[in-house]
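We emphasize that the prediction below concerns an isolated chain of 415 residues; any contacts that depend on oligomerization or on bound cofactors are therefore not represented. The input was used exactly as deposited, without trimming of termini.
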Amino acid sequence: MTWGPPSLHPFSLLLLLLVLAGASWQAPRSPPSIQVHCLESHLVVSVQRDLFGTGKLVKAQDLSLGPEGCRPATLQDDAQEVTFEVGLHECGSVTQVTSDELIYRTSLFYRPSPDGNLTILRTNQAEVPIECHYPRWGNVSSRAIQPTWVPFRSTIASEEKLSFSLRLMNDNWTSESTSAEFQLGDIAHLQAEVHTGSHVSLRLFVDSCVATLSPDKDSEPRYSIIDHHGCLVDGLSDSSSVFRTPRPNPNTLQFTVDLFHFVSDPRKLIYITCHLTVTLTDQEPDQTNKACSFNKSTNSWFPVEGPPDICRCCNTKDCRIPNRSRRRLSVDRISAKPWKRTALLQQLQVREADVTAGPMFLAVNFSRHTPLEPNPDFMEKYTAFGLSLSLIALVVLAIVMLALVLLCRKRNSAS
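Result of the prediction step, given as a token string:
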């Protein structure tokens, strides 16, 4: 009796191999290497020393928190985790107030240093943005609420405070942008706004804006985007930066900026800090309260509202009004009793605040995805590539096996 290989239909074998190859393949996911806990008055950041999930531990002294470079609470060479515990206002954090939230922003920095006398580095710098969001309304404390009587004067004061904001918007201005990652040549849509509460109607102006590498508007290097009391000077360059007209409403001003980066710095990120002011809506725009864009086709300046003459000073760079001071009233004065408030508001010429948007990342030289999760685009492409190779290998194997089966059958029939 002649024994041969088991009889398998070639198409059944190929179908079986394809079914096995169709099993889903998933890349292993590592646990998060950074954890953030936002508490009532401070935040705790825990960082695994295997920051990038490669098995190589980073040095604790190369990690810092915030622009001021706060160091970890403890520095132990044998520890697998580095912990930062800082106050919400410490380490150079930036505060932003929106209509519903109070947001504290900071960043975790990894700046590798050479070992010993070496002059080379095998890892890149990294910056991981960190945010803590707190609701503006309601009790955010876990302790019980103690009812108290609030004086009428202090109630009026809390209602009369102005809230300024500068937000990065999506391309159609319908909502706040969910990403701060850009390529060179992209356009940032910025919206400045003031929430007036029970104030009479106020008109908002962007007095000046500067781009810097940190939230400190006075740091170097810096680049002026808006200057001379509302002249969008960035539009004089090869950019398309411009104020959007008409306004959505008097207390909102929108403008676009063609994004860039500082050549002298490898971080490739920018912060934009703007000085915002308000006037009463019945006060006509003038040289010190205006929003002017440059039109390259006509080689002239034009305002969002008001007569064109108020923009002429953008060419001379001297937009002061002689014999006129821009009086500033403190919050306490505006918080006067209701029957005095009308008279004080009639005297009001300007209220002001500095607000910051950022960081915005542009073609950075380190991973633009935080270590909290892998790059989704890379993982998707890597999975598809691996699956394709698996299918090709299985098809080749099926053809080889089919050839062997046919060869064995031919020999059996010949014998």
